Amino acid sequence: MSSLLLHGARSTGFGGLWVGLRDLAAQGAGHLVRRFGWAFADQLLSSGTNFLLNVLVARTVGVRDLGAFSIAYATFTFSLGAVRAIASELLIIRHSALPEHEWRDGIRRSVGTALLVGIVTGVGCLVAATTLAGSVSHVLAIVGISLPLLLVQDVSRFALLARRRGAAALLSDAAWAAVMFTAFVLLREADVASVTWFTFSWAGAGCVAAVVGLMQLKVLPCGPITAVRWLRGHSDIAPRLLAEFAITTGVSMMTVFAIGGIAGLGELGRLQAAQILLGPLNIMFSGVGLVATAEGVRLLRDSSRRLAHDCRWLSLALTMGVLAWGMIVAFVPRSIGEAVLRTNWDAGRALVAPLLIAFVCYAASFGASIGLHCLAAARRILLARCIDGVLTLFFGLAGAYLAGAKGGAWGFAVAGLLKSINAWWQFSIAIREYEGGRGEAGRGGPDADYLPRAAR
Fold it and tell me: DSSP H helical segments within 61-134, as ranges?
């Protein structure tokens, strides 16, 4: 049994092979549930809560108020992504394999970094709120005040999952959901349908969840000066991890706007319908990603080859998961599909095949991406993301220009295949550089600085 997935048993003969494959599948499923089950559950709760939040707000308020809430929520999600890059990722990459006292010190510094970013961004939101009027001013002010604790909650969640305390992470998100929906029920009973109160309920519940997370970790954030020093101490990878987030987010937004402009909103809607059908796969990837990097960092302490082996197994398991969900979508009765997407069912289902190929390619490259982060190969990570962005934009937009939504979907499939090849190529080079760096470090050579600091 490996740490990320498992090692297979050896058997002879066809019967032995069948029994071996059956046992391998059973052991693999059990091991995945034990190792990633809490992460899946936590991600499912988090994603489901966010989905229901947006649905309830959309069903309750008017178009202008919905737009105001969208601005506030977009500010939160963008800040969240940035903090994950420079706080959560750094904590997991550099501290997961360290002794308990050093791990706790890393949590303090990571949480303090999130708090500092939240304060700076929150002040910006408050300044923007003073220049605006109406509901958008109110919701931005609420986000500005609550953002520091909302970002702290997410870092504490990552820290708990990285230390294999998935139940505690789930409790933090459950507290957020329970307080928020209780507040929503009270607002409904009071016949209040204000986007300001909805935002206050959501943000206030998140602050409660942050306190729950910190109580479970039993730590307090470090001061701003210590947070800045911590970021400077990781200046070899922090800027590149932040650039990775910016490139990924920017390419995603550019692709959506460009396809809408080239092929029209109708074709963009067809693509979105197909992506909704495959949406549960994003929960799978997010759940695995919450745990896999920390597990991989611990594996790296033992052997880089073991890390590479388990990364391949991880990609294989995720690929099988993608194919399994694709089979479910393919055989869903039309009546059920139309009940979910109504008139968009046929448009979305027609594009499932090429987008499923793109997801398969993403699953195939996922292990390599995790491996690059475990190695703290920030230069390779950034290079891979730049190449990925160019491939996605070129093939996606070229396909949309030539054949609308269908062409764009097939363009994403081709780009996904090339991105998977690139990811494993970058990972193989990073492994060789890491092993070479360890050899030079053992002899006091100049490449010792290549080693991730948590591994030295």
Answer: 63-83, 89-95, 100-131
